[in-house]
Here is the input.
Amino acid sequence: MQINLTLPLVLPFIFIAVISVFIFSMTKLGSKKTREIFQRQAEKRGGYVEEKFYHFSPRLVIPYIDQKIIVYSTPGSRNSPPYTHLRYRFSSIRNINLTVYKEGFFSKLGKTFGMQDIIVDDPEFDEIFIIQGRDEILVRDILSLSVKEKLLILSRLNMRLKINRSIILLSVPSKLKIDNDLGQFIEAGVAVVQKVTQIG
Here is the structure.
Protein backbone atom coordinates (compact mmCIF):
# COMPACT_ATOMS: atom_id res chain seq x y z
CA MET A 1 0.00 0.00 0.00
CA GLN A 2 1.41 3.35 -1.09
CA ILE A 3 1.00 6.39 1.21
CA ASN A 4 0.56 9.82 -0.42
CA LEU A 5 3.07 12.08 1.40
CA THR A 6 2.15 15.28 -0.49
CA LEU A 7 -1.38 15.59 0.95
CA PRO A 8 -0.26 16.72 4.45
CA LEU A 9 1.98 19.33 2.81
CA VAL A 10 -0.74 20.69 0.50
CA LEU A 11 -3.60 20.62 3.02
CA PRO A 12 -2.63 23.88 4.84
CA PHE A 13 -2.46 25.73 1.50
CA ILE A 14 -5.89 24.43 0.51
CA PHE A 15 -7.28 25.51 3.87
CA ILE A 16 -5.78 29.02 3.51
CA ALA A 17 -7.16 29.31 -0.04
CA VAL A 18 -10.69 28.31 1.08
CA ILE A 19 -10.60 30.82 3.97
CA SER A 20 -9.30 33.57 1.64
CA VAL A 21 -12.07 32.95 -0.90
CA PHE A 22 -14.66 33.01 1.89
CA ILE A 23 -13.36 36.33 3.30
CA PHE A 24 -13.15 37.87 -0.19
CA SER A 25 -16.74 36.75 -0.95
CA MET A 26 -18.07 38.19 2.31
CA THR A 27 -16.24 41.49 1.68
CA LYS A 28 -17.68 41.72 -1.83
CA LEU A 29 -21.18 40.94 -0.52
CA GLY A 30 -20.82 43.74 2.07
CA SER A 31 -19.46 46.08 -0.60
CA LYS A 32 -22.45 45.33 -2.84
CA LYS A 33 -24.89 46.29 -0.08
CA THR A 34 -22.90 49.44 0.69
CA ARG A 35 -22.80 50.32 -3.01
CA GLU A 36 -26.60 49.95 -3.27
CA ILE A 37 -27.36 52.19 -0.27
CA PHE A 38 -24.74 54.74 -1.40
CA GLN A 39 -26.23 54.73 -4.92
CA ARG A 40 -29.68 55.60 -3.56
CA GLN A 41 -28.19 58.50 -1.59
CA ALA A 42 -26.15 59.63 -4.63
CA GLU A 43 -29.31 59.83 -6.75
CA LYS A 44 -30.98 62.05 -4.12
CA ARG A 45 -27.99 64.39 -3.80
CA GLY A 46 -26.47 64.66 -7.27
CA GLY A 47 -23.48 62.55 -6.31
CA TYR A 48 -21.91 59.32 -7.50
CA VAL A 49 -20.40 56.13 -6.10
CA GLU A 50 -16.68 55.64 -6.51
CA GLU A 51 -14.89 52.30 -6.23
CA LYS A 52 -11.13 51.98 -6.31
CA PHE A 53 -9.04 48.92 -5.55
CA TYR A 54 -7.22 50.65 -2.66
CA HIS A 55 -10.42 51.57 -0.79
CA PHE A 56 -11.93 49.20 1.80
CA SER A 57 -15.39 49.73 0.35
CA PRO A 58 -17.25 51.98 -2.11
CA ARG A 59 -17.32 55.72 -1.40
CA LEU A 60 -20.17 58.15 -1.93
CA VAL A 61 -18.95 61.40 -3.48
CA ILE A 62 -21.13 64.53 -3.40
CA PRO A 63 -19.68 67.52 -5.28
CA TYR A 64 -19.90 70.73 -3.25
CA ILE A 65 -18.54 74.10 -4.41
CA ASP A 66 -15.07 73.22 -5.78
CA GLN A 67 -14.50 70.24 -3.48
CA LYS A 68 -16.13 66.88 -2.70
CA ILE A 69 -18.02 65.63 0.34
CA ILE A 70 -16.91 62.01 0.75
CA VAL A 71 -18.86 59.38 2.71
CA TYR A 72 -17.15 56.06 3.37
CA SER A 73 -16.97 53.16 5.81
CA THR A 74 -13.99 51.58 7.50
CA PRO A 75 -14.00 47.98 8.75
CA GLY A 76 -13.88 47.12 12.41
CA SER A 77 -11.32 45.02 14.18
CA ARG A 78 -11.13 43.06 17.40
CA ASN A 79 -10.57 46.29 19.36
CA SER A 80 -12.57 48.78 17.30
CA PRO A 81 -16.05 48.87 15.71
CA PRO A 82 -16.60 49.66 12.03
CA TYR A 83 -17.13 53.37 11.31
CA THR A 84 -19.03 55.50 8.83
CA HIS A 85 -17.31 58.81 8.05
CA LEU A 86 -18.17 61.99 6.19
CA ARG A 87 -15.13 64.07 5.24
CA TYR A 88 -14.78 67.46 3.57
CA ARG A 89 -11.63 69.48 2.92
CA PHE A 90 -12.04 73.26 2.84
CA SER A 91 -9.88 76.35 2.78
CA SER A 92 -10.31 79.10 5.35
CA ILE A 93 -8.36 82.06 6.63
CA ARG A 94 -9.57 81.18 10.12
CA ASN A 95 -8.02 78.50 12.27
CA ILE A 96 -11.23 76.55 12.93
CA ASN A 97 -10.95 74.02 15.71
CA LEU A 98 -14.05 72.27 17.05
CA THR A 99 -14.86 68.89 18.56
CA VAL A 100 -18.37 67.73 19.49
CA TYR A 101 -19.05 64.30 20.95
CA LYS A 102 -21.62 62.58 23.13
CA GLU A 103 -21.09 62.96 26.84
CA GLY A 104 -20.17 59.76 28.63
CA PHE A 105 -18.88 58.61 32.01
CA PHE A 106 -15.26 59.70 31.43
CA SER A 107 -16.22 63.08 29.98
CA LYS A 108 -18.48 63.72 33.01
CA LEU A 109 -15.55 62.84 35.22
CA GLY A 110 -13.32 65.16 33.20
CA LYS A 111 -15.80 68.02 33.57
CA THR A 112 -15.69 67.50 37.33
CA PHE A 113 -11.93 68.05 37.21
CA GLY A 114 -12.13 71.16 35.03
CA MET A 115 -12.12 69.82 31.45
CA GLN A 116 -13.04 72.59 28.99
CA ASP A 117 -16.62 72.39 27.75
CA ILE A 118 -18.24 75.23 25.81
CA ILE A 119 -21.87 75.93 26.65
CA VAL A 120 -24.03 77.02 23.69
CA ASP A 121 -27.12 77.94 25.74
CA ASP A 122 -29.20 75.10 24.33
CA PRO A 123 -30.12 72.94 27.36
CA GLU A 124 -30.76 69.74 25.38
CA PHE A 125 -27.61 70.07 23.25
CA ASP A 126 -25.42 71.08 26.21
CA GLU A 127 -26.72 68.13 28.23
CA ILE A 128 -26.03 65.52 25.54
CA PHE A 129 -22.75 66.76 24.02
CA ILE A 130 -19.29 67.83 25.07
CA ILE A 131 -18.25 70.83 22.96
CA GLN A 132 -14.61 71.88 22.73
CA GLY A 133 -12.91 74.54 20.64
CA ARG A 134 -10.48 77.44 20.70
CA ASP A 135 -12.81 80.27 19.65
CA GLU A 136 -16.12 80.20 21.52
CA ILE A 137 -17.76 82.80 19.25
CA LEU A 138 -16.79 80.83 16.14
CA VAL A 139 -18.03 77.60 17.73
CA ARG A 140 -21.40 79.23 18.45
CA ASP A 141 -21.57 80.48 14.83
CA ILE A 142 -20.93 76.99 13.45
CA LEU A 143 -23.41 75.36 15.83
CA SER A 144 -26.43 77.19 14.44
CA LEU A 145 -29.95 76.07 15.32
CA SER A 146 -30.20 74.04 12.10
CA VAL A 147 -26.83 72.31 12.65
CA LYS A 148 -27.65 71.51 16.30
CA GLU A 149 -31.02 70.00 15.34
CA LYS A 150 -29.37 67.69 12.82
CA LEU A 151 -26.58 66.67 15.21
CA LEU A 152 -29.12 65.96 17.96
CA ILE A 153 -30.80 63.44 15.64
CA LEU A 154 -27.44 61.65 15.38
CA SER A 155 -26.88 61.53 19.16
CA ARG A 156 -28.47 58.05 19.26
CA LEU A 157 -25.73 56.90 16.86
CA ASN A 158 -22.97 58.23 19.18
CA MET A 159 -21.66 60.64 16.56
CA ARG A 160 -18.42 62.63 16.78
CA LEU A 161 -17.72 65.85 14.85
CA LYS A 162 -14.18 67.13 14.48
CA ILE A 163 -13.13 70.24 12.56
CA ASN A 164 -9.41 70.78 12.58
CA ARG A 165 -7.52 73.20 10.34
CA SER A 166 -9.06 72.47 6.94
CA ILE A 167 -10.88 69.14 7.44
CA ILE A 168 -14.40 68.40 8.64
CA LEU A 169 -14.83 64.82 9.84
CA LEU A 170 -18.19 63.49 11.05
CA SER A 171 -18.12 59.89 12.29
CA VAL A 172 -20.36 57.27 13.86
CA PRO A 173 -19.10 53.95 15.28
CA SER A 174 -21.14 51.68 13.01
CA LYS A 175 -21.56 50.86 9.35
CA LEU A 176 -24.82 52.62 8.45
CA LYS A 177 -26.92 50.13 6.48
CA ILE A 178 -30.36 51.77 6.78
CA ASP A 179 -31.26 54.45 4.24
CA ASN A 180 -32.88 56.70 6.85
CA ASP A 181 -29.85 56.58 9.20
CA LEU A 182 -27.40 57.24 6.37
CA GLY A 183 -29.62 60.03 5.02
CA GLN A 184 -29.75 61.77 8.43
CA PHE A 185 -25.99 61.34 8.81
CA ILE A 186 -25.34 62.94 5.41
CA GLU A 187 -27.80 65.78 6.07
CA ALA A 188 -26.05 66.61 9.33
CA GLY A 189 -22.65 66.56 7.63
CA VAL A 190 -23.84 68.73 4.74
CA ALA A 191 -25.34 71.24 7.21
CA VAL A 192 -21.96 71.51 8.97
CA VAL A 193 -20.12 71.86 5.64
CA GLN A 194 -22.51 74.60 4.48
CA LYS A 195 -22.13 76.53 7.74
CA VAL A 196 -18.34 76.29 7.80
CA THR A 197 -17.96 77.34 4.15
CA GLN A 198 -20.44 80.18 4.72
CA ILE A 199 -18.40 81.49 7.65
CA GLY A 200 -15.23 81.27 5.56
User: Anything to note?
Assistant: The radius of gyration is 22 Å. The longest helix spans residues 6-45.
